[in-house]
Amino acid sequence: MIKLIAIDLDGTLLNTESQISSENADAIRSAQNSGIHVTIATGRAHADVRAICKKAGLVTPVIAANGATTHDENENRLDSIPMDRNTATKALEWLEEHDFYYEVLTDQAIYSPNQGHQLMSIEIDRVLSSNPEESMDRLLRMAEKQYEQTGIVRVPSYRNIPENDEIYNILSLSFDKEKLEMGRAHFQNDEHVAMVISADHNFEMEHPEASKGNALSKLASRLGVTMEETMAIGDSFNDVSMLSKVGHSVAMGNANPAIKEIAKEVTLKNTEHGVAYAIERKLSGLPLENIYA
Questions:
Q1: pLDDT tens digit string along 122-149?
Q2: Residues in Cβ contact with 44 at an 8 Å cutoff, skipping those fewer than 6 apart
Q3: Which of these, 73, 46, 8, lies nearest to 151 by C-alpha position?
């Protein structure tokens, strides 16, 4: 019996317009009305998640920053695992030296460099020049998604982030494939950070003990629910830690093929209200049809 459902946001609960469809929202409310706990589990900042959920009329606990923070449905912080400040500073110094766009998620804001727009524009121009078949609209949409977040604060440099702000997550992205792989390789084997990938064009860093899976385990324990009684729905590599721990793991139809291999079942795509389909089928005791397996 499922007693807790954890749902990723981007590529999962959100559609291509970064919104929660009425179908998905209704399915979540139906589960909650049946006495089932539902939590959002995402790499986004807590305040940004609240703003998105508010538009859809949803109230849930929130696992944010890839598991570095957890808040209950009343916005009370239950747990947090900030990065070591020196470790974060060294990572940001490297990113600035190599002209990477980055965002620093803290307990106060999401800090991003003033020149972030310029860095992404330069990379988009380079990609379009070297690959005319690439879609400008697609690249611009990916860039715009970063600007639309609630809580963004522009700063000249990471050095301007207040010392008393706890840093939970550092996200970096690049549309240059070689540059992106260089960044991922640099942090992949750094024992001082956990490096995860949540989209094709990014990588994120956090405390080594921070993960969606660990945060979900703690939340389930607080709620008196076992991981065997928990369902997780996701689409990317930052979801692996929770998909591999729950009794009911579901990958989106648009998920990376490797994620589909890890999950026990596959639902519809995020553009087809895949979350609603998964919730309705599972709570009715019916298997998913694995259309996109």
A1: 777 776 666 766 666 666 676 667 667 7
A2: 9, 10, 52, 64, 65, 149
A3: 46
